Fold this protein.
Amino acid sequence: MSRRSVPDRARRRAIRALAAELGVAYSVAARLLRADSPASARRLPLRFPVGDDEHRAWMFAAREHRTFHSRVRDTRLATDLPLGRAAHLTRRFPRLRATGGIGPLYDGEGRETTLAMLYSVLGHESPSLLPHPDELSWAAELGEETAVDIACAALDRAARQLLDHDRWRLWARVEAALDAGAAGTDRKARDAAIVLGQELRSTSLRGSLDGVRHILDALLVETYDCHPPGIRVRVAGQSGIVVGAEWGPTGPPIGYQVRLDTEPGLRTVPTTDVTPESAAEPEPIPT
């Protein structure tokens, strides 16, 4: 018996993932996806790059058709710092496997754990960045990810900036934050610190840092309608793919890390030099 086609296997994986995420039967998840196709998923906005990754296309299509109750469940998870928000963002920005030969993006074992650790570091070192609980509770019940993103904007940006610092030093800061949390009086923070501390001691997480950076870059560029990792672009007439964003202290990204099709390494270019590959060529002005 021949194996099922790749698109069919991708669709079945997406249905199983959606069923698990929503807590519904496989048949219910299948009905939610029935009206979609990978082709229509590829017509999603630029913030959802899928390339040739059928599974990612199906996952994004499924998220676009969530019920209100499912969206509220997601936003409640997104406000639960540090573990819940890390889980939410990892699901929201899944692996991008097919990237034209440069390797997967949004990848690396332990992305969710590493992201939660970044939030723990900030909660320990800069507690003023944590959103007020009342603001998070209000945003959680709206069922709108954007509302939660606004509440967590400063925290998310600070988490991304941690990845621009010395990465060896970062792990020492993580360990210090988790030790402090495990010894604290807040039961929720203590339980999270204990769980993350066990992961830190038992799992190698260094391979997840680039994937976490991709997730946070994709999250932050949404606010400014800029280019997320994985999107095809053109730079000085050459085609390539965005691998990361460069950030200043505030505001939109100031540059991108781009892997051009004709070059083996990364090139850092200012945002003004980058255009979407799918953008139409400007029409000539009549003379």
